[in-house]
Amino acid sequence: MSKGFVAAEEGHVILLLQPRGTVVTVALTSDTFNMEGWGHASIFVAGGMGTATTAITVGECTAFTGSDRTALTFRYAKEDTAAGDTLDAALAWASTVSLSAGSTGVFAVIEIDADELSDGYNFVQVNFAAAGGAATGKDLCAFAVLSGGRYQEDITATAIA
After folding, report:
1. Beta strands across the sheet bearing 138-147
2. pLDDT digits (tens, 9 = 90+) for 63-106
3. Closest by CA position to 43, among listed 17, 24, 82
4. CA–CA separation, 116 vs 95, rounded Å?
5. What CATH number does domain 10-147 carry, 1.10.357, 1.10.1070, 1.20.1050, 2.60.120?
6. Helix (H) or strand (E) holding 58
7. For 23-55, how does the pLDDT look when each residue is reduced to its tens digit (9 = 90+)?
8. Contact 100, 106 (CB under 8 A)
9. pTM score, whole prediction
10. How far apart are CA 118 and CA 116, in angstroms?
């Protein structure tokens, strides 16, 4: 029998964007995280209440500040219905992924390998476009699971500071 991946022991989990409990109507930027010690990042973005379509982009940077952010093309799959677990059939490449309007419980999984980042760009940041007016925003949250650690320990070092 094969063994699965235990994220809390073999990876590093990062809360990138806290759920707010209210619709978000302004552009948001996640915490910037460092992939220098990791081979892969799976980023999970979930959209709750609200009726707006939310565009998500990912950027690579050379520092935590994200001031030199450069757009990154990434692989993704998404659940765009209220079914809960019916991801797209295959990972697609894009520079933007959108969560549908009018649905709660939609989410996207963004996959990034460290070797896809440009030389010297070890940091990753997720951006969320402004999503409509006060009655049409979307509640969002995001987290990342880093895997393929280069220096595994029982408690992994922070990747966001």
Report:
1. 12-17, 138-147, 40-50, 106-113, 74-79, 92-94
2. 988 889 999 999 999 887 767 788 876 788 999 998 776 666 78
3. 17
4. 13
5. 2.60.120
6. strand 54-61
7. 667 788 889 999 999 999 999 998 876 666 778
8. yes
9. 0.87
10. 7
Domain ranges of the chain: 10-147
Cβ contacts of residue 119 below 8 Å, gap of 6+? none
Residues comprising the chain, all counted: 161
- Three-state DSSP state, 47: strand
| Beta-bridge partner residues of 75 | 93, 111
Residues 135, 130, 95, 43, Cα dihedral to 10°: -80
Residue 14 has φ and ψ, to the nearest 5°, of: -125, 125
Q: Which two tokens stand for residue 116?
A: 């896809």
